[in-house]
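## Example pair
The file below holds two records. Each record gives the amino-acid sequence first, followed by its structure token line.
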Amino acid sequence: MDVFESDEARDLRAAVGAIAAPFGGRYYVEHAREGRECTELWHALGDAGFIGVNIPEEYGGGGRGLAELTIVIEESAAKGAPILLLLVTEAISAEVITEFGTPEQRKEWLPGIAGGRTKVVFAITEPDAGSNTHKLSTTARRDGDDWIVDGEKYYISGVDTADALLLVARTGRDPDGTAQLSLFLVPVDAPGLTVTPLPVDVMLPEKQFTLHFDDVRLPATALVGDEGAGFRQVFHGLNPERITGAALCVGIARYALDVAAKYARERTVWDRPIGVHQGVSHPLAKAKIETELAALMTHRAAALHDAGQPAGEASNMAKYAAAEAALAAVDAAIQTHGGNGVSADFGLLPYWGLARLLRIAPVNREMILNFVAQHSLGLPRSY
């Protein structure tokens, strides 16, 4: 792996930063408090060609890879505007549709996604399945040439601003009882689909929803890829989700450290800037080191994915390291600010909430530790 970024990558960072900076922290915090998505920034990035940087050029995208998408996500977050739905629409849905979609599905969905005017969110989580994808209870059964979907999903992000769902449903079972999964593109206004807001206390621009499917009829053309091959297809999207989730965390950490370092340089008590004290400087320095290490693993994971190499281990490690780094960085920033750390004027708490959420989702730290113990160290499976 080349640890030196190319001139092209540095130019991409600068260009994304130039677009995101005028929006910045105040813009993001206001939207987070109001539960209002950052549509203006999304459109600005889309109009510049950055939303669809990983989508093939023939569909209006940039023709690049996940490495470039991680730069877009990280740099926007580093300017104070982390966009959670980039993980869903671009890293999961666009990657899956590009890889497994029919030519007609690619033509229908990818140009709008690339231009930032179409969103396809991911619907996999269920109340009783947790991290066990084999226990999904939402089903899709054949009815002639159509499919009929029944079941429930929850903690589905951004449905209110989406055009469609990339739905994971059970379409059968193997002889040993293992669920056969399939993927479907479902319009958000499909008859029989009920969308209910799911209130959360984290301040986020993106809202969460519970979905109820009651005899939702889909045409045969809604199936993405091969029937029963959804488990493999899902994981083609989950590694990118973890990698871009790591990039989001790295960006959050960079933003928090920039804000905290500026405050520590300028805040004066007893005629000295507070940054002179090791009790202030050391936590920030430690967080900086952890952030840089997480960034390296994130870039490695993206490079492996783009090269078609096994990326599961690196993706999980990147997500773990970056989430820990982001939470530590925001916590250190809050502590550096003292009482101002919880002041609405300084706007740090929304970043803490998002960083804390990213320690849980899109995969929690405990399941990552399980993965590393089993697959990297060869230890017995614990679940």
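Second record, same layout:
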Amino acid sequence: MTGNHKDRTITRRRALAVTGGTVAAGGLAVAGYQAAFADTATATTDAVASTASAAASESSGCMTLMSSVTEGPYYLDNALVRKDITEGKSGVPLTLRLTVVDATDGCTPVSGAAVEIWHCDAWGYYSGYTTANPGGSAPAESEDGSTANDKTYLRGYQIANANGVVKFETIFPGWYTPRTCHIHLKVHTGGQKEDGTYEGGKVNYTGQLFFDDEIAQEIFTLEPYSKHSGSYTTLDNDMVYDGGGASSGLLTLKAVHKKDSSKGYKGFLTIGVDPDAENTGAGSGGGGGEGGTPPGDAPTGTPPSTAPSASSSSSS
């Protein structure tokens, strides 16, 4: 079943699995998006991260890795290393705090891992593919009034600190037919930051992050999301999400203000990877339409022919 949204909308990486109850999904507090996400307890969050890792290490199984999924039809290999990926795109603020651990070595933090994410804007459009129809009824991407670069918005990398933690400041993603609300994700190791982008190394994991249906559908009633109407695919009917909760990439979400969802959310998840594995997600199923086939009317945009310059990146 899908949720039919009249005058409702939304403004894209999936995490690896924690099965068997051995690791809590994201037991970390996060710093915020602009003033609403002010970081008030860095020491506490680091302590919680260490505690979670220690508890995980006590389990002989640690984590069970899930198979990677497709990178989807909207991937571009030119993301900038930066924490804030919004570029002025409007939407409900979302701060992501993701912790990368080695599932083959007692869930120890993977320091230096590069986490790359990308997702659509409030109306379902991806940078690099701004003419791709998101399905339903939505204004043209050019009508959003932002100054965002159509080739780079809502895409970026962050490098994990000593605790394996990365943080992104973005907006709650929108949706497009026939997918549920999601963020795409890749975990890289062995490369390095160069000229504002991440170069070299290999991709250990390709996945997606997901959102609770009730929270997503509440946000879709807000501006600018509400300008995109149509049939929204819920988690139960999504072709990629398999119902496994945090082990399948379902984020733990915390509202910045309990009575006002427009103030934003904080999202948490622990990502278990095998640093020796490699999976780019290219050519695998599940990213666009059924079997990995993109929707019939998307994407039709032309991806950028050159990588963005380092001068357009923000601090990491």
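Notes on the second record: The two ends are 41 Å apart (CA to CA). The longest helix spans residues 42-57.
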